[in-house]
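Morning run. Coffee first, then this:
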Amino acid sequence: MWAGRFAKALDAKADDFNSSIRFDCKMYAQDIRGSIAHAEMLAAQGIISQEDCTAIVDGLCSILEDLDSGALEFDMRCEDIHMFVEAELTARIGDAGKRLHTARSRNDQVAVDVRMYLRDEAEEIIALLKTLVADITDKAEENKAVIVPGYTHLQRAQPITFGHHLMAYAMMFLRDISRLRDASARMNFSPLGSCALAGTTYPTDRRMEAAKLGFDGITLNSIDGVSDRDFCIEFLSAFSTIMMHLSRFSEEIILWSSWEFRYVELDDSYTTGSSIMPQKKNSDMAELVRGKTGRVYGDLLTLLTMMKGLPLAYNKDMQEDKEALFDGIETVKMCLDIFAPMIRTMRVRSENMYRAAQAGFINATDLADYLTKRGMPFRSAYKIVGTIVAECIERGCVLDDLPLDAYRAHSEIFADDLYSEISLETCVEKRISEGGTSVASVEAQIAAVRKELEV
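And here it is:
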């Protein structure tokens, strides 16, 4: 492609090192769509003839059809997907194919391909996130009244419902959807027509190309158009956040599945056994999701490191964006695709959750509130309840079982109604503040999320 300037062919190993078709071939559909829009713009502007445009578009459509069907295979001797398509087009339609590259460079060509590819993949990931959120929400509704200990510092803290706990993850994944939409909106400007870096002397219509390709506008600086990879970094950051949320959820599922907790049991379809210990049922899918999180973090770090010292404009270093980006996309999709049905089929052991909630004095805050609502300053109530907890530990009982006379030894405010006030069910239902753990609040959260999923 650069014949004329060079007297020698590229060394075979250097050629292979330089080549990107083995991974950028993923973008063949976007590359062809971009080329069709470019050919139509060139014809509309009188830069190429309508006859050549028709031949180019027909040829590109036939290449796309053959690649989709498998009738055409990629030629790995080509340097990249752009040169493969151009070479195949020229082989099919002759000299008209050589006119396609008028008024563009591979620099703006790859920039538009990556944006379109990311836009398409982001929609798929959003659809997968919506499925996961819907499954979490369904599971939360099934368990909106199931009482479980809420934890801070991995210590039992206050009683909550399992539905409330699950809805926290639904909120996280909704924000992930929002992040992807925001990133897509910021990215949705076409760099096509920026050429190598300085634009072109041809009277092109960049906005026509942008509209044909579904962009909201054009990049306003041609240097930035070809050398920007902010959008790749932003998407990988969003993917990393998705994986972080999946990893947190995985960690809890792994804990909940253990014999020490036994809060949930994963379906056999999403667990494995041991080659030597016949009793084992391992939460391997959740563990793999947790492990793959580091992989996506690495993809993000690859791009940040690659871009940190690059002078303007395009540099070959930027070819390294695609493997990391593609890996991040595929990893997130793979994890979401396995995670949703794992949650959907997960069995909740509510009886074990309730037994755990009965121990650990997680109604101590409510006991302190009992005193403060009857006039005692909170700090004084806090100290008294702490002393009562210590007494219960010494006696080997829980707050619900401590006799009333033992309570009244600490304060005459205590009366018979304290036991109903500190029951787990009451503790949960009294959390009436918006966003809290009461059943009514969880139902409101579920309704809000389901409404959001309709958007």
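The CA atoms of residues 396 and 402 lie 10 Å apart. Good start to the day.
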